[in-house]
Amino acid sequence: MNFFFTNRFGNASFILYSLVWIAGLCCVYSQVRGQEEYHGRATYETGGAAALTTLQVNLKTVTTDAEGFFKIDLSSSPKAMEVERRGYRIKRWGVRGKELDVLLARTVYLMNGLVTDEMELPQSQIEVIFRQEKEQLKAITGSDGVFHLKVSPEFNFAQPFELLVNQQTIPGENISFLDDFGFAKIKLLPSSNPSKPWVVLSEKGEPVAGKEVTVNHRVFQTGNDGTLLNWNRETIAGTLHFQEFQVVRVDSGTHAIRVYVRENAIVPVEPVLAPVQKKETVTGLATIDKQNTEAKPGESQDIVMDFSAIKELLKQMEEQEQLDITLIHQRIEEVAGALELSQALTPSERAYFLSYLERLQSLLNARKQEFSFEQEQTQALIDRMRKHLSEKDSLQLLAEKHLERVRFEQEETVRQFQKELLVVSGISVFCILMTLGFFVISRRIRKQKQEIVRQATDLQQLNALVLEKNQDITDSIHYAQTIQAAILPDPKAIAEAIDDYFILYQPKDIVSGDFYWFSHLPANQNSPAKTLLAAVDCTGHGVPGAFMSMIGNTLLNEIVNHRKINASDCILELLDKRIIRALQQYETENRDGMDVCLCIIENLDRDTRKVTFTGAKRPLYYTIKDKVEVIKGDRKSIGGLIYQNKSFTKHELVLKKGTRLYLTSDGYADQNNPEYKKIGSRQFKTFLEEINTLPMAQQKSQLEKRLRNHQQSAEQRDDILIMGVKL
User: Fold this and answer.
1) Which helix (DSSP H) or strand (DSSP E) does residue 332 occupy?
2) Are 102 and 93 in contact (CB under 8 A)?
3) Domains of the chain: total
4) What is the largest CA-CA distance in the chain?
5) pLDDT one-digit tens code per residue, 144-180
6) Domain for residue 415, yes or no?
7) How far apart are CA 55 and CA 101, in angstroms?
8) Secondary structure (DSSP) of 210-230
9) What are phi and psi of 298, to 5 degrees?
10) Is residue 478 part of a domain?
11) For 554-582, what is the HEC assignment?
12) What is the pTM for the complete model shown?
């Protein structure tokens, strides 16, 4: 390292800063480009890809492919997202790095439609029902055969559905959809009376008899009831030309097609209007008619003048009982035509027109009985004007949104320009700083190199010292293990008193807080020979636990071997007092202690053994006919001052020769696996029931194997101790 820095520092610094400078230029170039490519996918909330769907990201349009994927170049991070697909809205969208995730959900939208008969004539007052599973859409056609449906999100025209018109099922070939299910054209089934006559009537509904009518350049005569004579189906859909009459409207009824006329100059009228196809953008605005977008100068002023004239006529209607409402109807029709040609109205003009419509509506309702026929025609015109006023208002909203979009794009352009200007200006500053930084950092690197070398030397020395101390501590603990092993019972002494046994002893660390204890009292004049066994679990593990185990082992030897106390309950009671005294727990806050399982075994005769058990928070497991039984110890520990003047329970059992006893600490049952699931006392008991008939050495092997299988890679949690004894 020293050689590199001292002899090759100049070359290395030059290469390093060249790379940094090139990387900086690359960053600047990417910023100057100003465009970042984003990838994304649009899906439906019901699952599946949103294929061939147009999205707007920051007012920039992109269309998804057949799998719903798309990519788009943006000059800034995505801030706005819209979908241009009828019946769908954006439920949720998000950005992760350069990935866009768009979730679409169905929404309510308005669908328009037209119902015609087999001769393409609009049909009024027709009930239209779309039915799909539990969903149903219902509408009634107006006087022009047009209906409007509010389509719920649950209804999907892309799925099979049933169409009923006046409760009659219409086949699929009689319905066609336009503009992505925004417009539906329905043709009724052929009438049971395919030869419906044409009847010419005056505006008041009186037959026009004995008149010549030209249809598709063919002349027909009307009968006494106004019926066209000698007509055929091929002439129906043409343009009507009347001598001395003007066509007001054409009404296709159930039994006849009625043509209403008025005396006037010869004016050609188209009786059937094709539906205007509309293009919608799903942005929360109403549907806008893209046709008729050219406005004429002074057009709104002319319309206002027409309404003013109508206002004067309405005043005359209020003052006079007899007034020719035909003139009012004619003027309203002219205003309606002007509205259809207009592009947009100002808010004041729109409010002006609507107020007159409401006034006209109320006056017509008041004259309903006197002018029922004329009112029907005028009411249709009022509805027509209301519809156009609504469309003009929607067009104005669309224009406002377009202006807002233009402003947004202009602001975005300004921001992009400022961003590019800032980046380009930063190039010069960057180059200057790189030049200055080269000299400053090179000097700093020399100093840092020297400091790093010094620190590395110090760390190596500290590491060597830590390793040395760690080795000393480990050696000390290993020596403590030797001392602890020396105080444990001699296996030969245990084998002389017990024919068959095993001890599973596995410290968590090198030394253990668990220990096993053994003592054999030979027979005397007052009592038979007794074998005492104990499994003791001291507070803590490692070195602290090992100190406690040495104290416990010493006190048990003193109580039993020197003081000759051989009653199990008395042994634990005296052990509790001696632990409290030894640890000075009355004078200090020390609350350490130990849990003990103590057994005393006596031979009553050749085949019978007496077992006396006392437990301090530890149970005794024993077998009867290969079933494992449990005697729970008292819920008190040795030491700890939790209870004053503790007393322990003595349990006496008379068992047959060959019975197995198991004394344990809690380490085996509390051991967890990598999922932190313990073996548990219940599972431990099940293990013993499965293996208790095996020889004691094999039982130890099985317990070790099952512990390894359960523990796997998990760390050992506590010291483990199990003593198995066969009587």
Assistant:
1) helix 325-341
2) yes
3) 5
4) 153
5) 788 988 888 888 887 888 888 988 888 888 898 876 7
6) no
7) 12
8) S-EEEETTEEEEB-TTSBBSS
9) 75, 10
10) no
11) HHHHHHHHHCCCCCHHHHHHHHHHHHHHH
12) 0.43
